Amino acid sequence: MARQTRRYAGGMDAARGASYEVKGNPLPYVIPPVAAIGNLILAGVLSRLWGAYAHPTVWQAAWRAALILACSAAIVWCTYAVGRARQTPLRAASMLMSTAACGGLFVLTFTRWSFDKIMTYLLIMVTASIMLAVTKLLHGKGDDARASMFGELSERVKELQDIGKTSKPKQIEGRLVARAEMLPGADFNSLAKPEVRTGIASALDVPPGGVRMIRDRNTPRTGRIEISPVDMLEHPPAWPGLSAPGGSIGQPLRIAVYQTGAPIPLLLPGDSQAGRNAIGVLILLGQAGSGKTELQLTLAAEARSRTDAEVVYIDGRKGLQLPKAFRDAMHVMITNAEDGERYLDGLIPEVAKRAGQIGGHGHEQWTAGCTKCPKFRVVIVDEASKFVESEDTLVELAESVRSVGIFVLLGLQRATGDRMPTSVRTTVGGVICMGVRDIGEGARVLSEETIEAGADPGWKNRKPGALYAELPGTDPDDWSLPGRTFKPDRDGVIGELADYLATIDEAPASPPVRAATRTPAPTSAAPVTHRADGDDDDPDADKDVECAPPPIDPDCPPDEDGADPHEPITVPNRPRVPLDLDPETERQYSPAEIRAMIRQAIVTAYGNGRRQVRPSNFAPLVGIVGENGLKPPTLAKILGEFCQGPTPLLRKNDRGVYEILPPGDGDPGTALARAA
Ligand SMILES: Nc1ncnc2c1ncn2[C@@H]1O[C@H](COP(=O)(O)OP(=O)(O)OP(=O)(O)O)[C@@H](O)[C@H]1O
């Protein structure tokens, strides 16, 4: 304590390892008593020239008293106003000082002096001076070293002494923003140290994340200090509804808001005119319970409500726990981890095809509003750590999908070394970091500047939905501004999406309709049995010459042979296996022709070395016969037929994958044995 309160004229602070000069300035303590004495002398002079001892007339006394009163009122008001921002003790001491000085001046000018009056005046002024000195000392406003508790605070804000000048703070969207210029040779980033920011937050009594330091890009000397007095994200905002149903995926998706209340826009395609790259791959990092799923659902619903996008949602962990109406609304819903991985593996080969399609009519990248470009594809992968482990795959994916109108969101729970390659940040087009274990983990995906400016996503799962976003098309200065997703409202999100889809005749088959038209369905207990006896098959399917079902066909219930009802066969345009099918035509195809095409496709695939097919592989066929020409149950039924007979072409395994048996092998026993 003694050591700490000693004053140095200059020297080394061993603890800090830096030399500096302590500015032991006595003025703050000397000024009040000196001013009190000065005021007394002034009162003496005035009383002789103007006041009690000058025998003024009544009018002279009146206007002189009025003038002194007006000056005193101005001084007291000024002290009161300036002291509003200060702590109460300091304000009280300065008010006492100022009123006692003014009162003393008035009384001692216009009344005759007495020993009591002078002693009273001096006593009050000494008290006020001591109060000011004590306040300054103990609240760290003076330059003396302080007791350890306050000395620590002083240590933390030492860097502030390097600030040369600051501008007048402005209020911008709920934040106080001031520009600061450091002394020559000092680095603005020294203010961004967590200890300094915490010290400032503590001194100003604002939330720790409420202090940000944003250095100017072209000089280390200047920057912006931003203080958010209140945490506007304490209570997440309500979901405002779909941002642009029926619009283009080129318009920003609304998934969250900044602390300031401004929306965080998610722009997926690139825009050469605006100089913005397509995002390609986005990493969404957040530990369990940090709010990833809610964000993904909102994002998926936003994308699904855009006319030129198709949405693939992969959640191999708990996809089946997502509301059925949501699953049905997606173009592709994959709830099996293996299928998800297969889908992602198949994405890269597809890039070349899409590139040909897009480049074929002279576009360098996917372009919103172009009818010749394929639909923009949004792929949301809930737990993608396995996929991200392979740096090569990730780099290849990120680099290739960007221009061909594919966006892949890779959800991750952890970003430790064994889970993610270090180069990930430079590879992907965008990052959203939700609550993680600590700032170090966040720093694996967020940029150095964002962390340095004060971003600290170490909320774990204490503040679900809170996030930092580094997204194309957003101001990098805002990357360290915390944001939050909307208050969870699954029913609202899914309901509004379903309403929109109904208006464009894309409403998913609703469960109540199916339930009403279906006989109490056996569940997955005996899938093959149902297929074999044919009772559950649509008896009218073969008679349906045009194979064009209405969206909900009570006579053709979804496949009940145990296959996942969310099997990606519902989705057109998902060519994953080159099946050498004919180009699209306007023709209507009969069921027999469709069967022949499917058979031919399988034989061709086998000739190309494929040994397995899945219903989703026949997506190109859907493209040929029309989106409504081949409904999923019919495809499943046809594939089921190919598993039957003396020379089956296929054999279905329990994961819904069909193994191709050697075509033309007349001996089913041999074929099956080989397939087994
Ligand atoms: N913006 C938000 N405000 C308040 N609560 C939220 C917000 N976002 C999500 N939550 C709540 O946080 C909890 C966890 O959310 P969610 O399931 O989305 O997390 P998660 O990261 O997907 O977790 P897991 O990885 O375990 O699936 C849920 O109860 C959800 O309702």
Tell me briefly what this model is.
The chain is built from 23 helices and 20 strands. It is of the alpha+beta class. Helix 3 runs antiparallel to helix 4 and helix 8 packs parallel to helix 17.
Number of domains: 4
Shape by Cα distribution: elongated
CATH-scheme architecture of the largest domain: 3-Layer(aba) Sandwich
What integer value in Å does the Rg equal?
Answer: 37 Å
Percentage of residues in helical conformation: 25-40%
Biggest sheet layout: 10 strands, mixed
Q: In DSSP terms, counting alpha (H) and pi (I) runs of 4 or more, how many helices?
A: 23
Share in β-strands? 5-15%
Keywords: ATP-binding, Membrane, Nucleotide-binding, Transmembrane, Transmembrane helix
Binding site for ATP: 286-293
Region (Disordered): 508-582
Biased composition (Acidic residues): 534-543
Key traits:
single chain, 676 residues, alpha+beta, Rossmann fold, 10-stranded mixed sheet, 13% strand, elongated, disordered N terminus, disordered C terminus, binds adenosine-5'-triphosphate
Topology:
Blueprint: H1 2-5, E1 11-13, E2 18-20, H2 27-49, H3 58-82, H4 88-110, H5 115-138, H6 148-156, E3 163-166, E4 170-172, E5 175-182, H7 194-204, E6 211-215, E7 222-227, E8 253-258, E9 263-266, E10 281-285, H8 292-304, E11 309-314, H9 324-329, E12 332-334, H10 337-345, H11 347-359, E13 376-381, H12 385-389, H13 391-401, E14 406-412, H14 424-427, E15 430-433, H15 439-442, H16 448-452, E16 466-470, E17 483-485, H17 490-503, H18 511-517, H19 527-533, H20 591-607, E18 612-613, H21 619-625, H22 632-642, E19 650-652, E20 658-660, H23 668-675
Parallel strand pairs: 10-14, 10-15, 11-12, 11-13, 13-14
Antiparallel strand pairs: 1-2, 3-5, 4-5, 5-7, 6-7, 8-9, 8-17, 15-16, 16-17, 18-20, 19-20
Helix pairs in contact: 2-4, 2-5, 3-4, 4-5, 8-17
Bound molecules: adenosine-5'-triphosphate.
